[in-house]
Amino acid sequence: MSHAIDGHHDGELERRMSNETRFAVAPDTLPNACLAVVEHLNARLALMVGEDERASSGMFRLSYTFAVAQGQWLTLETLIDPAEPAFPSVTPLVPAAHWYEREVQDMFGLTAVGHPDPRRLVHHDDWPDGLHPLRKDFDPSLPVPRVDRPAETFHTLHGEGFVEIPVGPIHAGVIEPGHFRFAAVGEAVFDLQPRLFYTHRGIEKLAEGKTPAQVLQLAERVCGACSCSHGVSYSQAVETLAGIEVPPRAAAVRTLYLELERLYNHLGDLGNICAGVSFAAGASFGAQLKEAVQRLNERVAGNRFLHGVNQIGGVRRDPSASDLHDIAATTTHIATEFRSFIEMMLSSDTVLERLKTTGFLPAATARALGAVGVAARASGVDVDSRRDHPHAGYPALPMPTPVVVRSEGDVYARVLVRSDEILATLAMIRAVLDTLPDGPAAVSPGRVPGGRAAFAVSESPRGENIHFVRTAPDGTIERYRVRSASYPNWPAVAACVPGNMVPDFPVINKSFELCYACLDR
Amino acid sequence: MDWLLLALQIPLMLLLAPLVQGIIKTSKARWQSRRGPGVLQPYRDIAKWLSRESVASDQASWIFRAAPPVYAAAILFAALLVPTLERRSPLPAIADAIVFVGLFALARFWLAIAALDTASNFGGMGASREVAFAALVEPALLLVLFAVALPAGSTSFSAMVGDGWPGAAAVPAFAALLVVTIAETGRVPVDNPDTHLELTMIHEGMLLEYSGRPLGVIHWATQVKQLAFLSLLAALFFPWGMADAGSRAPLALLLGLLAWFVTVVVLGLLLGVIETAYAKLRIFRAPDLIGVASVLGVLAVMLTFVVEG
After folding, report:
1. Which CATH superfamily is domain A2-113 in?
2. Which of A101, A212, A251, A308 is most open to solvent, judged by the fewest CB atoms within 10 Å of its CB?
3. Among A10, A91, A18, which Cα is nearest to A389's?
């Protein structure tokens, strides 16, 4: 693998995970090294982590992690001298780095030199200059004064007939906060600038100094819609650090819960897409089916959002025989109902007319932005971490993970990907139930070793969720980074809206169904 | 002027409009396998709005405050022109199809300028969409009314209410007026009265800046408008059981009331079914549907000449 970046690196670093290759790179050669990885290895930038190591090594560390071949990661790491807190931006060569680098600017105060769009990302306009929350010397217990700074959030467009339409962050429906600034000519959208990051809870900062078990509680609450996936990603990262493997039964049960999560999300999302085109019958049907799965979750896992099902070393909620019977019976019923739902939805001409060609995301854009999940697969990008980075019990299933890829790239394609994935999910749930091994549901993680770093993925309903964990010498969390599936996908929403009509935005947005909370953390 | 009929029709329109709305909403809920809040909910909503204080933008001018009463007055006036209980309008002298269309245009004009008044984006978007569609809906409505007026030889509503008007032109005319009713009442597939998605709103978009009592007045008036259109459909195409003009027989008027109410409720349920079964059209496809209404209107006019000489 190293030949691809020969001449760009300063030597291979010690492996921290069996499926990851790491290279040290000097800041100056970083952009070209990243470009070489993307071009020669056909890689996708999956994660970028900034770390403040001034206390130990006296430097800031930036690591760019790429998904390369099947199941393999490649990480380029560079150290930044605090005396000169800047680094050459990778974004001009690898566009997928754009938000990661803006975030590092905000959170660590490291300037991405040459970034084409160096505006603030996480911080809003009234956050004081020079205050960077993920630096170790930032005290989160102190109040932060709000300041009157010149606004830099939006580019303004000028010209005859341009109308600026500000929408949100408070919306008429009970949904998450997000501001969208449209520039429209009549009803046609010319430009869309989202202003997100209204739900910052400081989860990554909060995790620092906590024990790995405590942080699991935070991980599950990064967002409400994918809490099982976030819990699995985090637990797996800590298990990798601790060098343990979960028992086969725990892996299978995790798969079961992950698929139940996908099932209720996809059903609800299809219903919401109907609501987005004012197809009331479909909206109700989708809501009904989602509710049925969430009630199943409550019966089996104790709550509707699958909180608290994981623990480090396995699962806390080992379903009993009657739970398994309940899952089998309920999903069989859902399968029948779902067929009539999707037939009703896709046999309505007025619905199809709204979905087709709307919100077209070209494959090249999806690749350039590193999109994942349903959004990527509906635009012809063949990624699914269940297959590409095997986790939980997926490798043990009797069938390969069916990856649904479509090439149309519009709202309709995202509907069909979800619809086919629901059928696949129902089959996988059945397969897990048929092959569920006996045995313990968890092992003790023992003491998590200090001074180590690892990350792990799981495929949520929205795509790949990556959790990165570094432990301090005493075994507590030194750095925690969550890169949810929504993170690379939000820019894809903004990219595919221009050219559509203003009233088509809600259905486009719903077809991606991204999360605001896990984007922000 | 028929004082008795007027004294009956004013409360009829004002008091039954929320009930008809409640029946439509409940029927929709049942179609969507929901329980729904009950047929009396529109009354509760209006009572709630009317008892609440109104908050207006400090950018609002007198236009914003004047619009709700003008809107409501014009609509109520138009609603009083439609024959309901007997084959004659309570205001026979001015119960003219063109006055009817003109009063709704007046109401729409005031609501649209009030929506522009606060310079809120959603108000502007709603107003621009509403007015753009109105430019197509109003000619379609006039065409239908002319098709019915031709055999009657007059645009007076009292003359236009025939004996159920069995001519071949009735089919396209009814279809055209149904589409116009859907568009005028802001229903799917043209608009969606139940949406919370600001960017898709047409009629609701114009109301976003209103709150409290003025909002209640506008919603109430919009329900009266819906009842007026349903009553017009009933009077022109299903005038069954209507009392004869000038009749004072209590039994005949009671029968007229029953027949009218049943007909408007059935027509309202039809709107509910359409709203459940279809998705909303793309904004630039809605004019196609309204265009169909215009074509049907032209067809009705031509059939009136060809078939009925």
Report:
1. NADH:ubiquinone oxidoreductase Nqo5 subunit (3.30.460.80)
2. A308
3. A18
Q: For residue A246, what are its two tokens?
A: 């979960």
The domain segmentation of chain A, as residue ranges, is 2-113, 203-311+323-520
**Cβ-nearest to A187 among B277, B278, B283:** B283
**Cα-flanking dihedrals φ and ψ of residue A263, to 5°?**
-60, -50
Confirm if A128 and A148 have CB atoms less than 8 A apart: no
Residue A185: the pLDDT is: 86
- Quote the ipTM score: 0.81
Contact call for A187 and B284, based on CB within 8 A? yes
The Cβ of residue A333 has, within 10 Å, a number of other Cβ atoms equal to: 13
- Specify the length of chain B in residues: 309
pTM over 0.95: no
A274 touches chain B (CB under 8 A): yes
**Cβ neighbours of A167 in B, within 8 Å:** 121, 198-199
* Residue A326: partners with Cβ closer than 8 Å, 6 or more residues away: A296, A299, A300
Q: Which of residues 181-210 of B touch A (CB under 8 A)?
A: 188-189, 192, 194-200
Q: pLDDT tens, B192-243?
A: 888 888 888 888 889 988 999 999 999 999 999 999 999 999 998 988 888 8
Is a pLDDT exceeding 90 seen at residue B86?
no
- Helices A248-276, A411-435: axis angle to 10 degrees equals 150
The two domains A2-113 and A203-311+323-520 share their CATH topology (first three levels equal): no
Q: Is the pLDDT of residue A228 over 60?
A: yes
Domain boundaries A203-311+323-520, corresponding CATH code: 1.10.645.10
A142-to-A131, A201, A459 alpha-carbon distances in Å: 12, 14, 37
Nearest Cα neighbor of B48 from B62, B60, B57, B37 is B37
pLDDT, one tens digit per residue, over B135-151 is 999 999 999 898 888 88
Choose, out of A179, A185, A278, A354, the residue to mutate when testing the contact with B (most B CBs < 10 Å): A278
- Give A354→chain B minimum CA distance, Å: 6
Residues with Cβ < 8 Å from B295, sequence gap 6 or more?
A: none
Q: Which helix (H) or strand (E) holds B217?
A: helix B212-237
User: What pLDDT score does A367 carry?
Assistant: 92
